[in-house]
Amino acid sequence: MNKKTNVARLSILSNSSLIIMKLFVGTFTGSVSIVSEAIHSTMDLAAAIIAYFSVRISNKPADVDHPYGHGKVENISGVIEALLIFAASVWIIIEAVKKILHPEAVESISIGFIVMFISAAINYFVSQKLYKVAKEEDSIALEADALHLKADVYTSLGVGMGLFLIWITKLHFLDPIVAIIVAIFILKESFELLKNAFNPLLDVKLSDTEINTIETTISKFKSDYCEFHNLRTRKSGNIKYIDLHMVFPENMSLKDAHDICDDIENGLENSLKNTEVLIHLESCTHSCPTCEHKNNLKNE
């Protein structure tokens, strides 16, 4: 089992433990903000399970039915996770409004305070592990899961501080207000995640920084080719796809042009991790400095 599935499994275990702890304490204290955190953790658990299976499927090699591999499974899982976060935030707001209309005192505030900070510490540790592997493997599914837990860190700290303020001020209406603030934060998170996960499904180009890296890498070989055009990029899971047309001098042999393409492909794969490159070879049909230079070398 690779490190992607290992860290996804760690997220499942940690979220399961936190849900049990938060539900018990939230019910015991009557705190809607703690219960909202339990709901958030339930969404995190669902996201962790989806991430776990998506990274396993996305690691499968290309086959007859999926010649480009299974990478977009991770993007689909990211979209589902974003929708789960959105649903959780709406549910939290509804419950918080009910609590404002029918206020109840929060009991055993100190226990809730301690649980929230324990939750924040655990989620911080797991999210850092997820982010590390997500960056190493360029995994949108693990990044989405890490984003869930990172949000949970902030919301747990927010709920903890809210309980602390209730303990000082005795203003129990702060509990549902904190829950609504938490939900708004989660709602914003869901839109960001939805955008990041959905764009690759539409074959949106790579980032400007990545395209600049591609063009810079290709330009290192400009003395060997005439020009390049029709540069297209897209991403599927953690795989970056690059294809372009490369124009070579008319008198250059196919073998020489092919060798140069191999060098360019190796350069791109070294510059951008998890890259597949397709180059279409064309012959120059007009006089250009590269052709003239090659002809001069041939005549010498």
UniProtKB/TrEMBL annotation:
Domain Cation efflux protein transmembrane: from-to ranges: 10-202
Keyword Transmembrane helix: yes
UniProt-listed GO biological process terms: intracellular zinc ion homeostasis
This protein's UniProt keywords: Membrane, Transmembrane, Transmembrane helix, Transport
Residue ranges occupied by any Cation efflux protein cytoplasmic domain in the UniProt entry: 207-284
Residues that span the membrane, as ranges: 12-35, 76-94, 106-126, 164-187
Localization terms from the record: Membrane
Name of this chain's protein: Cation transporter
